[in-house]
Amino acid sequence: MESLYGEDCNTYIFFEMHIGQRIRSELEKQGKTVVWFASELSCHRTNVYKIFSKSYIDTHDLMRISKILDYDFFQEYSALLKKDK
């Protein structure tokens, strides 16, 4: 698991999901292509592959992606927070 903070910090946030892989999975589940996704994001498809490789992502970018794919990726993070309680 990946920690947001260093080893010497008392507070740890662990991520059990790789957001880039989740985005790719949802895109494939919907039957959408990388070319379509790049067009919706107004970027080159090589940038889409960079998104797929990211284990974390800016919230603004995740909001745009959530709207484009009509899927709430934030609820997956919320579910992880509830699971850890």
Protein architecture, described:
This protein has a two-stranded antiparallel ribbon with strand order 1-2. With 85 residues, the protein is mainly α. The protein has one domain: 434 Repressor (Amino-terminal Domain) (Orthogonal Bundle). The chain has five helices and two strands; from the N terminus they run E-E-H-H-H-H-H. Residues 5-14 have low confidence and may be disordered. The chain is 58% helix and 5% strand. The protein starts with a strand and ends with a helix. The longest helix has 11 residues, at 19-29.
Write the layout of secondary structure elements.
Blueprint: E1 2-3, E2 14-15, H1 19-29, H2 34-41, H3 45-53, H4 59-69, H5 74-83
Antiparallel strand pairs: 1-2
Helix pairs in contact: 1-3, 2-3
Overall tally of structural domains? 1
- Under the CATH scheme, the architecture is Orthogonal Bundle
By secondary-structure content and strand pairing, the structural class works out as mainly alpha
What is the CATH fold-level name?
434 Repressor (Amino-terminal Domain)
What proportion of the residues is helical, as a percent range?
55-70%
Radius of gyration: 14 Å
Task: Give the CATH superfamily.
Answer: lambda repressor-like DNA-binding domains
Q: Order of strands across the biggest sheet?
A: 1-2
| Low-confidence spans | 5-14
What portion of the residues fall into strands of 2 or more residues? Answer: under 5%
Q: Report mean pLDDT, rounded to a whole number.
A: 85
What is the terminal-to-terminal distance?
A: 17 Å
- Provide the succession of SSEs: EEHHHHH
The largest β sheet comes out as: 2 strands, antiparallel
Number of helices: 5
Question: What form results from the Cα inertia axes?
Answer: elongated
Query: What's the level 1 CATH class?
Result: Mainly Alpha
